[in-house]
Amino acid sequence: YKIVSYSKEYLVGGSATATAGLFTNPLDLVKTRFQLQGELQTRGAYEVKYRNIFDAFIKIGRHEGITGLQKGLTSALAYQLAMNSTRLGTYQTIVNSGITKNSSDEQVFWRL
């Protein structure tokens, strides 16, 4: 019974971070492309592709389609699942076990 309960915490944490990653991936993609435009060129010797973030969203959407805004989603979700499902699942498992509560059932950082 306990193993199922612990697994559920990791599954819920992983699902939450994957859902967040699904919605924030287009923002990360646009931010990264905007930051890296002309990065390997000498200063002033490159054509500015995107004037601002909104322009980048529109141009990527037009030229690459809606799926173009989700490029890199697989690696982003793998990262979120590996890092944050472990973090959130472990945290909730520790809280549920009662390790972080004192004798008055108050939440504390450590027990003496």
What labels describe this entry?
3 helices, mainly alpha, 112 residues
Q: What is the percentage of strand-forming residues?
A: under 5%
Overall, the morphology is: elongated
Distance between the termini: 29 Å
The poorly predicted ranges are none
Question: Using DSSP, what is the number of strands?
Answer: 0
As a percent range, the share of helical residues equals: 55-70%
Largest sheet: none
How many distinct helices? 3
The helix/strand order is HHH
Give me the secondary-structure category. Answer: mainly alpha
Mean pLDDT: 85
Oligomer: single chain
Radius of gyration: 21 Å
Describe the protein in words:
It is built from three helices and no strands. The chain has 112 residues and is an all-alpha fold. It is elongated.
Give a brief rundown of this model:
This protein is mainly α and 112 residues long. The protein has helices spanning 2-36, 53-64, 73-97.
Layout: helices, strands, pairs:
Layout: H1 2-36, H2 53-64, H3 73-97
Helix pairs in contact: 1-2, 1-3
